[in-house]
Amino acid sequence: MKRLLVFVALSAMLVALAPASAAPVTGMSYDEVMKFSTGDTAGVQPGDFESDFQTASQPAAPIKGGGGMFGLGAAVQQAAAAMAMFKTGLATRHYIAGDKERVDYPAMQQATITDCDARTIAKLDLKNKTYTLVSLDQPKPTAVAGGHSSGGNAPSTSDDGSKIAIALTNKALGPRNVAGVTTDGYQSNVAMTVTRPNGDTGTSNMGMTEYLAKMSQISLVCPAAGMLGATGPAAMGMGQYASLMRAMSLSGKNPRFTMSATGPALPTNRFAMFLVVTFSGQGRGGQSGTLAIATQRGHTASVRSDNSIFQIPSDFTKVSS
Q1: Are 164 and 193 in contact (CB under 8 A)?
Q2: Which of 20, 154, 280, 304 ranks highest by number of CB atoms within 10 Å?
């Protein structure tokens, strides 16, 4: 009996002395559909989220005659998948909590898990139950447009000391129900002027329509994978939008970033249930063109950082990248 009491007391002391594990953090999960349109984009509005998400989540049907000449089968499949995505949209499922983020791509049957604490990104092949592991601290450099290098996530742009001036013209659109969530709508016209150190200037124009929920925006607390390996209009367009958001956040904190606005002030740090970003520019032959990227979200819920969704399934096999 005495030995038992000593054992219990020793166990309690060891538990008390052991380092406390980090408490689970509550974050959020949501589904998302990103659609693309060209031409007249003024009428882009929230759609039937349930139907759109189900349609965009369907895997692309394989093209018959697989291999193709000169090994072009894979390229043809990728081109077909890209065309299907442009038509139906890109469906993704997001989970963010504390230092972990998971993004699923149902149509591609892939997923990525970013673990900031472990400093890793796991790329999951959900169909074949395999995964590869990439270090956040040792990215593989790849060439990207403009001569900059990429760490496998987003292009890393060198800071050349340029000055950025942003002019916003805002308009309130009023309340609206989006995917069962009450939101407040805003419309903005954005002119972003970049002045290079040599005096060259260039202005890009962007339009934004957003419906913001009352809930706060939750983001990963370390550099994330984002659209890992993504290319094309989605990556380029949202890259420009991300650059705008970063410049706006630095306004007033860095003298090289300035912002002026007319109309109602835009709320900050609120979750966008619907967002349309419109880019205008000139293509070959001097013809003007417009591209709109519309992002709609739904199925919002809470998720904890200790949820098994952030773990690599035990029946998955690790393969070399």
Answers
A1: yes
A2: 154
> What angle in degrees, to the nearest 10, is found between the helix axes of 73-88 and 49-56?
180
pLDDT per residue as tens digits for the range 66-89: 555 455 555 655 665 666 666 788
Place of tokens 């009491």: 5
> What is the pTM for the complete model shown?
0.73
d(CA 82, CA 78): 6
DSSP code, position 253: T
Instruction: Give the pLDDT confidence of 241-291 residue by residue, as tens digits.
Output: 666 666 767 777 788 888 899 999 888 889 999 999 888 754 445 455 678
Residue 109: pLDDT band with limits 50, 70, 90: very high
Question: Which residues are CB-contacts of 272 (< 8 A; sequence separation ≥ 6)?
Answer: 210, 211, 212, 213, 217, 295, 297
Angle ∠(281,282,288) on CA atoms, nearest 5:
90
Q: Report the C-alpha gap between 258 and 162 in whole angstroms.
A: 12
Q: Evaluate whether 126 touches 72 at the Cβ level (below 8 Å).
A: no
Burial zone of 60 (CB within 10 Å; 0-12 exposed, 13-18 middle, 19+ buried) = middle
Pairing of strands 257-262, 163-178: parallel
Q: How far apart are CA 121 and CA 132, in angstroms?
A: 8
* Nearest Cα residue to 300 out of 211, 210, 201, 180: 180
